[in-house]
Amino acid sequence: KKNIIKENNMAENVASQENQVSKHQEVGHKSLLQSDALYQYILETSVYPREPEPMKELRELTAKHPWNLMTTSADEGQFLNMLLKLINAKNTMEIGVYTGYSLLATALALPRDGKILAMDINKENYEEIGLPIIQKAGVAHKIDFREGPALPVLDLLVEDKNNHGTYDFIFVDADKDNYINYHKRIIELVKVGGVIGYDNTLWNGSVVAPPDAPLRKYVRYYRDFVLELNKALAADPRIEICMLPVGDGITLCRRIT
Fold first, then answer.
1. Phi and psi of 186, rounded to 5°?
2. Beta bridge mates, 167
3. What is the architecture, at CATH level 2, of domain 52-255?
4. In 3D, which of 187, 206, 184, 200 has the Cα closest to residue 244?
5. Long-range pairs for 182-188: beta carbons < 8 A, 24 or more residues apart
6. β partners of residue 242
7. Is residue 20 over pLDDT 90?
8. Any bridge partners for residue 95, and if so which?
9. Residues 247 and 253 sit within 8 Å (Cβ to Cβ)
């Protein structure tokens, strides 16, 4: 009888863990933590009490948008904001903007004369949702927004050697199938000692999923591109890397040569 009770308890624990994992797969971009309570503790203890009012307003507005899964999580926004202050960033770039939550986190961290070259293929979400809040926050003057594919802009920047090594920080949160192409270009643009941040490098945890794992279509499609990037970054002698389980995974690359 004791064995039966023990086995039933074990089965219930396994089922509970599976339900918890499944729940987090639905909000995989928010956190890779396997505990809702622990993630909520982080948000309520460390993130929300210190979140600047403009970021809170933009986060809450973005949450109502049908594509809200694309946004940077609040804890990652806090992390980026602090990182930029720690490295004294002044000239930065962001590839992939959406409504501009991470862009606002960056703009608030930079000095008054700081600059952000921001690129996205769609300006509508940014202009309608993010820009009014960014303007109200008094940091819109720091942002040079370009609508369209990033690669042509990067190619022009790379062509002019005066742009080489001029960026303190570059954040990439865009089309995963182009991450490798972005890296080939922005490694020339970030300064030695500067930092590149690649978002979604743990990609809903799918980077360790078995080949036959049931994954959503877009997760499965982009997984191989994320795996390719992770392998390339680990082998690149020009950078030091640190992969962090913040948000959906962010890999920081510090250029050393």
1. -75, -20
2. 190
3. 3-Layer(aba) Sandwich (3.40)
4. 200
5. 182/95, 182/150, 182/151, 182/154, 183/229, 183/232, 183/233, 183/236, 185/151, 185/154, 185/155, 185/157, 185/158, 186/93, 186/95, 186/154, 187/236, 187/238, 187/239, 187/255, 188/158, 188/164
6. 252
7. no
8. 119, 172
9. no
Instruction: Render 214-257 in DSSP notation, one character per residue.
Output: ---HHHHHHHHHHHHHHHHHHH-TTEEEEEE-STT-EEEEEE--
Q: What is the pLDDT of residue 30?
A: 56
Residue 194 belongs to what H/E stretch? strand 190-199
Degrees, nearest 5: CA angle 243-33-72: 65
Q: Could you read off the pLDDT of 21-56 as tens digits, one per residue?
A: 333 333 344 567 878 899 999 999 999 999 999 999
pTM of the entire predicted model: 0.87
For residue 193, which of 108, 113, 86 has the smallest C-alpha distance? 86
176, 206 in Cβ contact below 8 A?
Answer: no
pLDDT digits (tens, 9 = 90+) for 127-136: 999 999 999 9
Report domain extents, the chain: 52-255
Q: Kindly tell me if the per-residue pLDDT of 9 is higher than 80.
A: no
116 strand-pairing partners: 92, 143
Q: How far is CA 33 from CA 12, 22, 25, in A?
A: 20, 12, 10
